[in-house]
């Protein structure tokens, strides 16, 4: 099964056919992967063979879409999967100043970033620099900061703050611990680690936060965009950050068991091992 | 604010953030190999220095080195025209 995703992505078939082909392959394909063992170990999350088929498809389809997004000539085919999005509340907020877009490692990888880049927004993006295609930084005015580089993490925080203060938009995820402090939640039968960087910026800069996720809906992608209301202002910093992460996590917690195709099985969940079996 | 009182202010802000009364030198690392201040703490330091000087910092001189030690912070502020 190794290399399935590159094989499908490079097949020359239209992307919509590739996604359908993966649906057919998922019926039996998931049983030959590490996902089977993972599902047995996580009964609070993985709910039977149908759940596993959807999860398998999501990782494979996400890998195929990410390969399309990384190619200048195929990127448009991936972005064409997007359903119409209501940006009105978000656009109204950003016209008044800086905005944090808090996303999470759910749904097809990098899809939301590419959608926001297409909108020509003044963006700073927290992202793993190793995942960026070579052509991307030179083709956009957005800045990319890598939260995995420990020696650059303080710069990332301060640059992000300065950017928000000048009316910019920060796109980042809080659902992965990148070093330093972290907040843990014991839910769904396991520990989940979160980084306090985004809530710290939201608190200090007093900017609005939108929880924005690009999620699979069938073989299409829908962007969910909603304002994340801040905790009570009178709270001290740590309880405020905890309250912020509680609100953020409660939205993700609804998706994880019920929409398995939107799980990515990254290192926080499975050390990326199941993904690697598919060549993702 | 003259340069020496400016430097004293930077040391005081760093000391507050590190919650220590220990001696801090210009080359004392702020991070895990020194005072143990993480990236959120560095942000707090920068915002507090801005608040005390009343002068906003700018992005163009910002480097990992400028946020690595008190001396780096002082040089950053000098470059920004505050020192």
Defining key terms:
heterodimer, A: 280 residues, alpha/beta, 2 domains, six-stranded mixed beta sheet, two-stranded antiparallel sheet, 12 helices, 8 strands, globular, B: 83 residues, mainly alpha, Non-ribosomal Peptide Synthetase Peptidyl Carrier Protein, Chain A, 3 helices
Would you mind describing this structure in some detail?
The complex is a heterodimer of chains A (280) and B (83). In chain A, β7 and β8 (220-227) form a beta hairpin. Chain A has 280 residues and is α/β, with parallel strands linked by helices. In chain A, the strands form two sheets. A six-stranded mixed sheet of chain A has the order 3-2-4-1-7-8, with helices on both faces. Chain A has a two-stranded antiparallel ribbon with strand order 5-6. Chain A has helices at residues 4-9, 15-29, 35-41, 48-69, 75-79, 88-94, 111-118, 153-165, 197-205, 237-258, 267-270, 273-277, and strands at residues 99-103, 123-126, 143-145, 169-173, 183-187, 190-194, 209-217, 220-227. The longest helix of chain A has 22 residues, at 48-69. Helix content of chain A is 44%, strand content 16%. Chain A has two domains: 4-78 and 262-277, no CATH class; 82-258, no CATH class. Chain B is mostly helical and 83 residues long. Chain B has a single domain, classed as ACP-like (Non-ribosomal Peptide Synthetase Peptidyl Carrier Protein, Chain A, Orthogonal Bundle), CATH 1.10.1200.10. Helix content of chain B is 49%, strand content 0%. Chain B has helices at 3-18, 39-53, 70-79. In chain B, α1 (3-18) runs antiparallel to α2 and α1 packs across α3 (70-79). Chain B is globular. The mean pLDDT of chain B is 89.
Helix content of chain A: 40-55%
The low-pLDDT segments of chain A are none
User: How many alpha or pi helices of chain A?
Assistant: 12
Distance between the termini of chain B: 8 Å
Provide the gyration radius of chain A in Å.
18 Å
Secondary-structure element string of chain A: HHHHHHEHEEHEEEHEEHHH
The biggest beta sheet of chain A reads: 6 strands, mixed
Residue-averaged pLDDT of chain B = 89
How many structural domains in the coordinates of chain B? 1
- Largest interface pair: A-B, 20 and 19 residues
CATH class of chain B: Mainly Alpha
Structure class of chain A: alpha/beta
Q: Distance between termini of chain A?
A: 11 Å
What percent of residues of chain A are in strands? 15-25%
Low-confidence stretches of chain B: none
């Amino acid at each position: 099964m190794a290399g399935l995703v590159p094989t499908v992505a490079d097949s020359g078939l239209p992307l919509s056919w590739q996604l359908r082909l993966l649906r057919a392959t998922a019926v039996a394909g998931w049983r030959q992967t590490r996902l089977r063992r993972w599902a047995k170990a996580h009964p609070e999350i993985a709910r039977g063979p149908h759940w596993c088929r959807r999860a398998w498809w999501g990782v494979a389809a996400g890998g195929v879409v990410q390969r399309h997004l990384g190619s200048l000539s195929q990127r448009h085919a991936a972005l064409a999967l997007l359903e119409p999005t209501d940006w009105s509340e978000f656009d109204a907020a950003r016209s008044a100043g800086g905005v944090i877009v808090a996303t999470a490692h759910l749904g097809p990888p990098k899809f939301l970033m590419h959608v926001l880049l297409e909108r020509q927004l003044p963006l700073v993006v927290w992202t793993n620099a190793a995942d960026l295609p070579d052509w991307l930084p030179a083709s956009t005015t957005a800045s990319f900061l890598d939260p995995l580089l420990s020696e650059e993490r303080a710069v990332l925080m301060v640059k992000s703050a300065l950017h928000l203060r000048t009316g910019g938009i920060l796109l980042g995820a809080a659902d992965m611990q990148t070093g330093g402090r972290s907040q843990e939640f014991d839910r769904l039968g396991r520990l989940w680690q979160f980084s306090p960087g985004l809530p710290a910026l939201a608190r200090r800069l007093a900017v609005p936060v939108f929880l924005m996720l690009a999620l699979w809906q069938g073989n299409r992608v829908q962007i969910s965009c909603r304002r994340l209301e801040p905790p009570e202002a009178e709270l001290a910093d740590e309880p405020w950050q905890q309250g912020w992460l509680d609100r953020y996590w409660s939205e993700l917690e609804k998706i994880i068991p019920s929409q398995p195709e939107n799980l990515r099985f990254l290192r926080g969940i499975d050390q990326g091992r199941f993904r690697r079996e598919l060549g993702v | 604010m003259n340069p020496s009182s400016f430097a004293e202010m930077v040391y005081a802000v760093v000391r507050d953030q590190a919650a220590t009364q220990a001696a801090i030198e210009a080359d004392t690392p702020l991070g895990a190999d020194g005072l143990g201040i993480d990236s959120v703490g560095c942000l707090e330091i920068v915002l507090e220095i801005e608040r005390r000087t009343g002068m906003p910092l700018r992005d163009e001189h910002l480097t990992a080195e400028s946020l690595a030690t008190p001396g780096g912070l002082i040089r950053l502020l000098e470059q920004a025209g505050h020192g």
